[in-house]
Amino acid sequence: MKIHFIYFFALASLSYAQSISGIINQYYEATAINLPANSITLSDATGLNIDDRVLIIQMKGASYNTSNSASYGDITAINEAGLYEFNNICSISGNDIVLKYTLLNNYGAGGNSRLQVIKVPQYTNPTVDDNLTCQPWNGATGGVLVLEATGTLTLNDTITVWARGFKGGAYKNWTSPVFTCPSGGAYTGYVITFAASAGNNHGAMKGEGIADTISGCFARGKQINGGGGGNNHNAGGGGGGNYGAGGVGGNRTNHSPFTCFGNVPGVAGISLSTYGYSAANNRIFMGGGGGAGHGNNLQSTAGGDGGGIIIIRANAIDGNNNYIIADGRHYYPAIASGFGEGTPGAVSDGGGGGGAGGVIILDVNNVLSTTHATARGGRGSNASWGDINCFGAGGGGGGGAIWISAPAIYPLLTTNVSGGLNGVRGPSAPASCDGTAGGAAPGSNGAVLFNYVAPINTVEFCTTVLPLTTNVLKGKYQEGQVYLQWSNPENVFTKFILERSQNGTFSPIIEMDNHQPLQTIDKHPYQGKNMYRLQMVHKDGKITYSNIIEIYTQYSALSSCIYPNPVLDKVNIECYTADDNPTEIQVFDVLGNHILSFTPLTNAGKNVWTIDTHTWASGVYYVHIIQGKERLMHKLVKM
User: What is the per-residue pLDDT across 487-496, written as a single tens digit (0 to 9) for each?
Assistant: First the structure.
């Protein structure tokens, strides 16, 4: 490995070998970025803590040609799309996180940029004992699985982000109002804004790519690396692209009973290989979605979803003949017949394009046993299955990228980045259509890349360790208030922000400059535990944190907090009470179903009880804490 674990090894004593499965990451949408302050504003920072390792990654943001022409979907500026880096959190104030290391990249946030911050779990020797995956891309967050381990990652099951990337064009049946099409021809346009009442029912939905649609999401034009949808009548959708370009959709060649033709299939999603995937331009992208096939008989198919992104940073991988998968999807549900995944495809309508393969990054020193890595494009949907006409099949999805830190392939690693096959037609009548592509093309192959170096800056913006051994902050509790005072060692700090917490997430309560008296009174402290610290701004703008002090107030009433929240495994209930009367804990789900209840031993003062949630389904729960006539409630999110 190259630049590795400067911060990470400091956590080794706090990390243990662990069985992992399911979704291990937590995802946060970024709404603003402030480069001078080296901070990012999140829609909700719940669950993040100081010193957490995070991945910052921009999913979209490219600019593109929006003219209704063959140039629709061409990139005019890549902007910040695909940029990413690792960092650590050195402070949290509300929903603002300040990053420990100076940001390497300038990012866009909010709007169509789709910047997200992902919490990166830290392990020593983790073992995948059941399917390990990521949150599917939901338009704002997800699509990425990332972990770090100081030792060996052992696979006893599959790691997969299959079809967790950009979405394929959704199925849309054009029957209301009455389907119309140009007499003796076909709609040749590249983009349509959905308005069925105006007769704009000539094109299927485009697949998703590295920019949000801003002028229309239907018809054959590509959406950068998202495949275009088939136009009327019943043309196939284009395949999505990533490192490899997608394949164009297929034509309908039998025009009866309508006079409109189907010779305008979805355009293929483009290759992004020249926009990233190099040491000089380290950008990565999820697989583009395939375009949908055009349908008016309830029997077309949607486009396949693209593959997601996997980033593994570890000393070694022990694969045990298991798979790491970032393939795109071949999406075949035939609506009228109720066919499921992998069935023949469209019947008497156009077929959807395959999703492009995603990305697998293996930043490891060695692969210890046979391990298989695939980032393949999805196959385009077949068409004309048992129908009397020759309908358009879907184009194949482009292959993704597998990028390793070694200068050559690991001997025990097998790879597959092939493009997806195009769909074919038949059985049908005339039989001359059977097995033909009708112009549908396979996706291009992706690539296996070498000498990967993770984007990590080592220049500190702030530090959580005082440069002096002095205890700067002091305080005491007296008559319901907390009295706090501090010093300015060697007069190097120009501003002080006093922060308070009850559960480890700090919020500012007062800001003072160095010309004011360095003391204050917290007149409304929490009942029970109060944690205080200073955010101290140096003359050069860097931030340092003081020591943290804990001050306990008297308990005149029941008070509590829960952490971590969201929770993956175990949640702690911290409760403060003035007496040792029995306390009851009850948990309900969002439908009001009773999950559990227990009455733990309660002592006057601080109590901490732990609940194991690993068997709970993901979702929202409500924790009730009851003592006599007092009742407290907390909302808990289970990942």
Answer: 887 788 889 9
Instruction: Take residue 215 and report the two structure tokens written for it.
Output: 């002028």
Q: Specify the amino acid at residue 515.
A: H
Separation between Cα atoms, residue 558 and residue 624, nearest integer Å = 12
> Sorting pLDDT into bands at 50, 70 and 90, what band is 192?
confident
Contact, 409 vs 415, CB < 8 A? yes
Q: Are 613 and 569 in contact (CB under 8 A)?
A: yes
The pTM assigned to this predicted structure is 0.75
As a whole number of angstroms, the distance between CA 251 and CA 304 comes to 19
Which part of the chain is CATH 2.60.40.3080?
A: 559-638
Q: pLDDT tens across 520-569, in order? A: 999 989 878 888 989 888 877 778 888 888 888 877 778 888 888 788 88
Written as one letter, the residue type at 314 is A
CA distance 48 to 519: 29
CATH 2.60.40.10 maps onto the chain at 463-552
10: Cβ contacts below 8 Å, ≥ 6 apart: none
CATH of the domain spanning 559-638, picked from 2.60.40.3080, 1.10.10.10, 3.40.50.150, 3.10.20.580? 2.60.40.3080
Taking domain 463-552, whether its CATH number is 2.60.40.10 is answered by yes
Other CB atoms within a 10 A radius of the CB of residue 442 amount to 26
Answer yes or no: are the C-beta atoms of 173 and 296 closer than 8 Å.
Answer: yes
